[in-house]
């Protein structure tokens, strides 16, 4: 289509060249650099590089902390993504109809998404405080014992997932709401004439029609939660122990604390491969449905 707008292809090439250069610098070069480092070992004393093949990968999958990081990452991704899509669906169904105060409630629902991660993490870290935090004050007022939200290995990961759900459910909500509002009203009216109402109408008519939006929301949130780093860095630093250490945190520690670029790059490639797999599964399902 673009080539039809220009008389010769050279003009089109020169117009696209800046974007191609930026793509190469910001995407292709980092990937090639990570590949190069993943199969080697840097010697910082004599500033040399030694090719060691698959050694970094074999050591990586024998590393207890890496396997724990994979487990934590998958648990967080599933819990946060599913919670955000389900809450987003519930909110979208609620806001897909007119009610008093809708135009005032909508900006409030979207507001957390507009805050920076640092601000969100700081707010929730104060709320999670054991002695004077908002959540423990509520628990004590209800006669329940306070919780060590960020210092209990069994709770810390889910506490961070709650923060991520609070901040990013609005994204899933907006995607699903757009899908609901794209459904022609004639379909709903025809369903009511045929006797499909309530849950039957929702399960057999509404859900199939917004399937792509649900999948898109789940994919975007899964990819974003899978590479979680900032909230963990600010709120727990990967602790207590390694109960909240994710793959991104693992890469950061090996690359910028232990200065082992080989192991960090190998872990980053594993993350990239998993993210690509998730994207390919989504693309395949979309192409099947189209």
UniProtKB/TrEMBL annotation:
Top-level taxonomic group: Bacteria
GO biological process: transmembrane transport
Assigned GO CC terms: plasma membrane
Membrane-topology annotation of the record: Multi-pass membrane protein
Subcellular location: Cell inner membrane; Cell membrane
TM region(s), chain numbering: 12-32, 64-92, 104-124, 155-180, 201-220, 261-283
PROSITE patterns: ABC_TM1
InterPro entries: MetI-like, MetI-like_sf
Coiled-coil positions: none
Pfam families for this protein: BPD_transp_1 (PF00528)
Segments forming domain ABC transmembrane type-1: 70-282
UniProt entry keywords in alphabetical sequence: Cell inner membrane, Cell membrane, Membrane, Transmembrane, Transmembrane helix, Transport
Family: Belongs to the binding-protein-dependent transport system permease family.
Protein known as: ABC transporter, permease protein
Species this chain originates from: Providencia rustigianii DSM 4541
């Amino acid at each position: 289509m673009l080539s039809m707008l220009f008389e010769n292809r050279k003009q089109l090439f020169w117009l696209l060249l800046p974007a191609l250069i930026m793509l190469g610098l910001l995407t292709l070069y980092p990937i090639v650099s990570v590949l190069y480092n993943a199969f080697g070992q840097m010697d910082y004393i004599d500033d040399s590089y030694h090719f060691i093949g698959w050694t970094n990968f074999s050591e990586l999958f024998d590393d207890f902390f890496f396997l724990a990081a994979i487990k934590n990452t998958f648990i967080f991704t599933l819990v946060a993504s599913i919670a955000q899509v389900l809450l987003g669906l519930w909110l979208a169904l609620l806001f897909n109809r007119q009610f008093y105060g809708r135009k005032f409630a909508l900006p409030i629902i979207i507001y957390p998404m507009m805050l920076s991660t640092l601000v969100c993490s700081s707010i929730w870290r104060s709320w999670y405080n054991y002695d004077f935090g908002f959540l423990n004050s509520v628990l004590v007022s209800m006669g329940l014992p306070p919780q060590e939200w960020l210092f209990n290995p069994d709770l810390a990961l889910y506490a961070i997932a709650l923060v991520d759900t609070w901040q990013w459910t609005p994204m899933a909500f907006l995607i699903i709401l757009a899908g609901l509002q794209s459904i022609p009203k004639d379909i709903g009216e025809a369903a009511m004439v045929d006797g499909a109402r309530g849950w039957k109408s929702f399960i057999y008519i509404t859900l199939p029609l917004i399937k792509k939006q649900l999948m898109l929301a789940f994919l975007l949130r899964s990819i974003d939660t899978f590479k979680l780093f900032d909230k963990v860095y600010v709120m727990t630093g990967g602790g207590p122990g390694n109960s909240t250490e994710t793959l991104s945190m693992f890469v950061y520690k090996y690359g910028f604390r232990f200065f082992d670029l080989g192991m960090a790059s190998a872990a980053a490639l594993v993350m990239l491969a998993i993210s690509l797999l998730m994207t390919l599964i989504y693309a395949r399902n979309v192409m099947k449905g189209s």
